Amino acid sequence: MKKLARKWKKSGEDDREDDRFSLPTHDDLRPIDTQEQEELVRSFEKNLAQQSLLWRRVFAAILLCYSVFLVYSIYQQAWSPWELRYHAYFMDEVDSWMVISADWAAVLVCSVAVAGLLLDSRYHRTCLWYSCFGGILVAVFWSYHMLRLPRFRWDVVWLPFGPLSGAGICLYVDHLLSESSEEVRKLRGYMYAYKAS
After folding, report:
1. Does 51 or 36 have the greater pLDDT score?
2. Which of 63, 109, 156, 182 is the most exposed place for a label (fewest CB within 10 A)?
3. CA distance linking residue 116 with residue 112, whole number of Å
4. For 149, which DSSP code?
């Protein structure tokens, strides 16, 4: 019985020690004053701007690396045609200049998507949509010629869907970042509406 009483007493002391490290369980009824609201909203805006720039640069860098790879692929196809395996599959189906043109179109799609991500103008979303439409054209070209091959090659699926996926992901990232920006703007609007009432 004494053991049980000691355990109970000891657990009560432990609970009081743990209370120092726990969050309060009741709300503080004091509202945030205007200065604190302004600082909070400003910190959200600053954080959003930093995060937006970071993620735009990350996805732009990934797409630029893919574009550099495509330029290398164009160079290889121009100087030693059909040496690359993923182009050699199409040797009997397509002329060399068409492969080079399709790769240049893919580079253009990626470049327009990068410009849409990094430009800070009101037309950046238009650039992203144009890159998606260009990606669809590249995907149709490569898909048509892939389906004409005697055997479907899964290892070159990135040829039709690489630029389209890159442009689509950039459009999605831009959409997410603009939604976050809109939420911060709403928060600032709520703050001013609260001041007016």
Report:
1. 51
2. 182
3. 6
4. S
Q: How confident is the model at residue 57 (pLDDT cuts 50, 70, 90)?
A: very high
The pLDDT of residue 190 is 80
93 within 8 A of 145, measured Cβ to Cβ: yes
CA distance 175 to 179: 6
pTM of this structure: 0.76
Distance CA(161)–CA(140), nearest Å, equals 9
Residues 48-72: what's their mean pLDDT?
A: 96
* Helix H or strand E encompassing 74: helix 34-79
Rg (CA), the chain: 28
DSSP structure class, residue 155:
G
